[in-house]
Design goal:
- The protein has 633 residues and is mainly beta.
- The longest helix has 7 residues, at 151-157.
- It is globular and about 80 Å long.
Length: 633
């Protein structure tokens, strides 16, 4: 309810004064506000009867109402009331070792503009390969049925196992103004129990009746919509952080479940007005999603998730989402072997390769992230780079074309004469005896052109500085295989010891156009979204005010988030003794193009975290038959 205040607060005026008749009207909304115009909670039999439940194989339907989720071999899971207070039951269909094909269908719903449909599933996806839950929307006029999600495919693409309550949200713009039904279909033999709740059709809305429904830890973006010309704003956010604000359009984070009011007082210096939305913000807890953050002291690698020294304290980081309150780490080969700290410190005393896991939980559920036994390499020698394992499967992993001007990190006609990749300091002194570079293309009309790779210190200005070592090959000597991603090795003799941040610089990539053909050389790169990390630099010719080259050059960090597939071969030289693990151990670069990357056996390929991969992607690194491989085609 709107409240008109008679006495303006001290923050509004230099001295207390009485508001004259209001010439401004306070109002606001949140970008996340919406109204629910259809919902189903399956809390009672009468409520559930609004839907239709059918057994498509004949006989009685086995859809049922249940108090809380339960899965084979798992403890009872939190009920949906941990997400939405007051919930009593959930819709469920239970595992059976025989064929099932059952559907739950909503009544007809008129879809408004700017609508979404949402629901929650409590699922344990390990056995979904045998039976799948699919969600459909059907246009009742045309009869056209559209699948919005296959839960099995969703679990595979997200590396999800569970069990948790998971929220699904789908945009309904294609069905605005139409009459539709929604349906869940569970089909297959075996599978696992499925629990559904919190089904809602919502419309984005800024009216006084709207509310904001979010998970804990979520930001809410408020917009001042006051009438008149206010010049001062004072917000009060019950349960929010910050609790108050004088900004016109503040952003607030809510971390604790509950319902909260928001109030705004505005003034133009002469009049003031206050508007309060009671119970406007509804915050629910959500089950966390576990995510392991490897130590910043280590390095990423093409052949291990993280490469670390032995005998050195390393801090692992919890990057989980969903506000976990409990953590349980397990470190194969580490000391300690387990920890309940959020960000534990671990030491690996013996060289080797190890796995680890993180289980997180809160009142709403739990989640686990597991890295396979080959994920952490402690000690020995290994290639290092700045590319995450999952990034090699991205469609942004490849050459970066500059249109008519060639490539970034390759042949170009833009005056970029050299490229550099930056690396943080090793946790302990290390030696580098070579750099492996992965070329996307090596076509050249200048086979004798020298290409030099140098190892350089970081200068005081943060750019490449003093040269420590260098190695030169000709353009015609660059390694390339039509079927594999293969490295070109630039060896240093002797090896160079590094203990500070350093650069690898690649210079001399030719850019000759002989009239009938041109050089076409490019290094594999990952090109990330705006705001992400960049580790690549380029040596660029300067231009004058008339856009003419001056003949002078300077180093610049890439203005796009890029890392190059440039991998120094590094060995820690100050660490505990143990069995050395070398870069060439257990590596197979000879995967031919007969590999069926569209329909391989799902139990053959694994990512570097040890998760099965059903569709290996070009340019990606996987484990197959106990060996690491790089797929080109």
């Amino acid at each position: 309810m709107r409240q008109y205040v008679r006495l303006c607060m001290v923050w509004l005026l230099s001295a207390a004064a009485v508001c004259s008749q209001a010439q401004i009207t306070a109002n606001f909304f949140a970008e996340e506000s919406s109204v629910t115009y259809y919902q189903q909670g399956w809390d009672t039999a009468d409520e559930a009867s609004e839907w239709t439940y059918t057994n498509n194989l004949g006989g009685a339907s086995t859809w049922q109402l249940t108090d809380r989720p339960q899965f084979s071999g798992q403890a009872a899971q939190p009920p949906y009331s941990t997400i939405e207070a007051g919930s009593q039951k959930s819709l469920a269909i239970m595992y059976a070792n025989n064929d099932k094909d059952e559907t739950a269908t909503s009544p007809t719903i008129d879809i408004r503009e700017n609508s979404t449909v949402e629901y929650y599933l409590s699922l344990y996806a390990v056995w979904y390969v045998y039976a799948d839950l699919k969600f459909y929307v059907t246009d009742t006029q045309t009869g056209e049925r559209t699948q919005l999600v296959s839960t099995f495919a969703w679990a595979q693409s997200n590396g999800y196992t569970g069990p948790n309550w998971e929220k699904f949200v789908f945009d309904l713009s294609p069905w605005a103004g139409k009459k539709v039904t929604f349906s869940f279909n569970y089909a297959g033999a075996g599978g696992e129990n499925v629990f559904i709740d919190g089904f809602k059709v919502r419309q984005s809305d800024r009216s006084a009746a709207s509310t904001v429904n979010i998970f804990s830890g979520t930001e809410v973006h408020f917009t001042d919509a006051s009438e008149g010309t206010p010049t001062q704003w004072q917000w009060t956010f019950e349960g929010g952080s910050p609790a108050t604000s004088s900004e016109q359009h503040p952003t607030v984070t809510y971390s604790t479940p509950g319902s909260y009011s928001v109030s705004l007082t505005v003034s133009d210096g002469n009049t003031c007005d206050t508007y309060t939305r009671e119970a406007y913000i509804h915050v629910s807890d959500m089950a966390p999603k576990a995510l392991i953050g490897t130590p910043i002291e280590g390095y990423l690698s093409p052949y291990a998730y993280c490469f670390v020294p032995t005998g050195t304290p390393l801090q692992f980081r919890d990057l989980s989402t969903g506000n976990p309150t409990q953590w349980q780490w397990t470190f194969e080969g580490g000391s300690p072997a387990t920890s309940s700290e959020q960000n534990p410190t671990v030491v690996y005393q013996e060289a080797g390769t190890y796995g680890l896991s993180l289980s997180v939980s809160n009142a709403a559920g739990s989640s686990e992230d597991i890295l396979s036994s080959a994920s952490i390499q402690a000690g020995g020698q290994q290639e290092v780079w700045n590319i995450l394992p999952e990034e090699t499967a991205s469609d942004q992993f490849g050459a970066i074309a500059l249109g008519f001007y060639g490539y970034y990190a390759g042949t170009n006609w833009m005056g970029m004469e050299a490229f550099a990749e930056h690396y943080h300091a090793p946790a302990v002194p290390a030696e580098i005896d070579a750099v492996n570079i992965y070329f996307y293309s090596t076509t050249t009309v200048s086979p004798s052109a020298p290409i030099t790779v140098s190892l350089r210190k970081e200068a005081a200005d943060g750019m490449p500085g003093e040269t420590l070592a260098e190695s030169t090959l000709t353009a015609g000597e660059l390694a390339y295989d039509a079927h594999n991603v293969v490295p070109t090795t630039f060896a240093f003799s002797p090896a160079v010891t590094v203990s500070e941040p350093f650069f690898v610089v690649v210079s001399g990539i030719p850019h000759t156009d002989n009239g009938s053909a041109t050089d076409d050389i490019a290094i594999y790169c990952i090109r990330r979204a705006d705001g992400a990390q960049t580790t690549s630099y380029h040596y660029l010719e300067e231009w004058d005010d008339h856009y003419q080259p001056t003949g002078e050059y300077a180093w610049y960090v890439s203005d796009e988030p890029i890392s190059m597939a440039v991998a120094p071969r590094l060995r820690y030289v100050t660490e505990a003794t143990g069995i050395a693990f070398n870069v060439n151990d257990n590596v197979n670069d000879n995967v031919n193009d007969n590999v069926n990357t569209q329909h391989p056996s799902s139990d053959t390929y694994y990512d570097l975290q040890g998760r099965p991969v059903s569709n290996p992607a070009k340019g990606s690194i996987y484990i197959r038959n106990g060996k690491k491989i790089l797929i080109k085609n």
